[in-house]
Amino acid sequence: MSDWYEQAPLPDKRRVAASFSRAAASYDSVAALQRAVGVELLARLPVQLRPQRWLDLGCGTGHFSRVLAARFPCAEGIALDLAEGMLQHARPLGGAQRFIAGDAESLPLRDGSVDLIYSSLAVQWCANFPAVLAEAHRTLRPGGVFAFASLCVGTLQELRDSWQSVDGFTHVNRFRRFVEYQSLCADSPLQVLTLERKAERLHFAEVRHLTHELKTLGAHNLNPGRPGGLTGRARIRALVEAYERFRQPQGLPATYQVVYGVLQKPF
Known about the structure:
Blueprint: H1 14-22, H2 24-27, H3 32-43, E1 53-57, H4 63-71, E2 76-81, H5 84-90, E3 98-101, E4 114-120, H6 129-139, E5 140-151, H7 157-164, H8 178-187, E6 191-204, H9 207-217, H10 233-243, E7 252-264
Parallel strand pairs: 1-2, 1-4, 2-3, 4-5
Antiparallel strand pairs: 5-7, 6-7
Helix pairs in contact: 1-5, 7-10
């Protein structure tokens, strides 16, 4: 066994993993926002950072594993994701030396084994964010950096408000509040270098283009309380009419409230 890897059982998060596994082949075709957020997160890394080993936490299709490999050519790379389908897609494309299935709340890594944990739009699916922070602290070497981009309340608010006017079901994924990120990061053993929220907005010609994109990404509604079965035509028409009140000259807006955090393990 190597000096960084140790086997840990995966928690039962099969719904999230299965949804993203199914989306692996189509994900990159509609991932413009994900690309932009990931690039923004990279720009926030400390300029002096020179990791010997990095972890792409929630690597998805491995796009940013390949970017990290190019940025840090002398470092060893580990790509980790909960969705085996994503790993199967990413492995042949390279970038990291290791591709492993694992969970951010229980990393299959040894203590003090990495210098950088990079995680773009993954930890919003983790119910236990304090565990994510604790695992980052445990597995980072002193001076190591945990850089993450996540989503908070206000994401897809236009879609949420439009559905709210149609029925009482949960149609849009729930995310924690930004103040919770602030409190949890402040309470963690990691030092907060930067933590901020930034709105990113996409525009769509029609509501169906947005909902199709969410499904293609594997990020459609995964919450308890979602409606079962097919959505009726009458409700879809009502949704379209409700969403039209948000229309702008560029199209129908879809706002993502992105949280960018860069934390460091004290020396």
